[in-house]
Amino acid sequence: MSSTHGRRAAARSTRLRAAIRAAALAGTTLLAACSGDVSAVRTLAVDAGYGPKSVQAPDFVAKSRSTGTPEFLPVGVSAPQRPVRAKSAESQKALEADLEGARNRNQAKGRSAESAGKATKPANAPASE
């Protein structure tokens, strides 16, 4: 008799665990239903006064928004190809020379500022009382 009693208790325990799991799953499903933008549960909660109130945008925000359809490229569509003109070898050399000249001028300014900083004696900190 004790073996049947043990089997019955195990069966009841298994059914209880299954019921708890089902209840937990139902609860999480209901809570997840509230998280979407389009949700019947959320709409009911808002209508009942428990959800966030919808607020109209201030006038300056509404006026700054575009009234037309934005002209964005759809996802997955590449922008149209632009005509690319390659630089000639001469213009590349001229550009490199111009950039090197700018770098050299900046380095000279940096060295000048560094030497001016070394020549200047820092001011003494005021004495604290």
Structure in a nutshell:
Helix content is 60%, strand content 0%. The N and C termini lie far apart (93 Å).
If helices are DSSP runs of H or I spanning 4 or more residues, what is the number of helices? 4
Q: Give the helix proportion (percent range).
A: 55-70%
Task: Compute the average pLDDT.
Answer: 82
The largest sheet is: none
Net shape = elongated
Secondary-structure element order, N to C: HHHH
Strand content: under 5%
Number of strands: 0
Poorly predicted regions are none
> Which structural class best describes the helix and strand composition?
mainly alpha
Radius of gyration, CA atoms, in whole angstroms = 37 Å
Distance between the termini: 93 Å
Please explain how this structure is put together:
This is DUF4148 domain-containing protein. 60% of the residues lie in helices and 0% in strands. The protein contains 4 helices and no strands. The radius of gyration is 37 Å and the shape is elongated.
